[in-house]
Amino acid sequence: MPYSHRTAVVAVATAAALLGLAGPAAADSGSPAPVPSTDGAQALCHRATKIDRRIDRALTRLNGPVTTRGSIARLQQRVDNAKAAGHTEIETYLKDRLTFRKSLVPTLQQRQKDLAEVQDWCEANDNGATT
């Protein structure tokens, strides 16, 4: 391909890419998203069992032994190892992660309790169909 044709092809490709990026931005009218007409009870009732399993798995992992990846005990062991090795920066970083991970347990336990109430409501209300 001669040099001038390559330049033209590159120029056309660049222009197409720029127009392609500008297209979706130009199409945005700035109008707000539609307001939901329902509370989504039926969908939540449908997913409640799956959500409960996910919370159970997360709590089991967090409360697991040192051998379980993602457990609080394993991260605590890493903090202890960093402290013993004198790696203060690593220790600080891991302590912050440990603090966050410990804070997940009560949050997940509360969600589990709330979800149990949702499941009771779903059973009493035909899985959200009768609202």
Polypeptide structure, described:
With 131 residues, this protein is mainly alpha-helical. Helix content is 75%, strand content 0%. The chain has four helices and no strands. The chain has helices spanning 3-27, 41-62, 72-85, 88-124.
Short description:
This protein is an all-alpha fold and 131 residues long. The chain has helices at residues 3-27, 41-62, 72-85, 88-124.
What is the topological layout?
Layout (H helix, E strand, L loop, with lengths): L2 H25 L13 H22 L9 H14 L2 H37 L7
Helix pairs in contact: 2-4, 3-4
Number of E-state strands: 0
Average pLDDT number? 86
Q: Structural class of the secondary elements?
A: mainly alpha
Give the low-confidence spans: none
Q: Tell me the β content.
A: under 5%
Radius of gyration: 26 Å
Alpha carbon gap, first and last residue: 69 Å
Q: What's the helix-strand series?
A: HHHH
The level of helicity is over 70%
The biggest beta sheet is recorded as: none
Number of helices: 4
Shape: flat
Key words describing this protein structure:
flat; mainly alpha; 131 residues
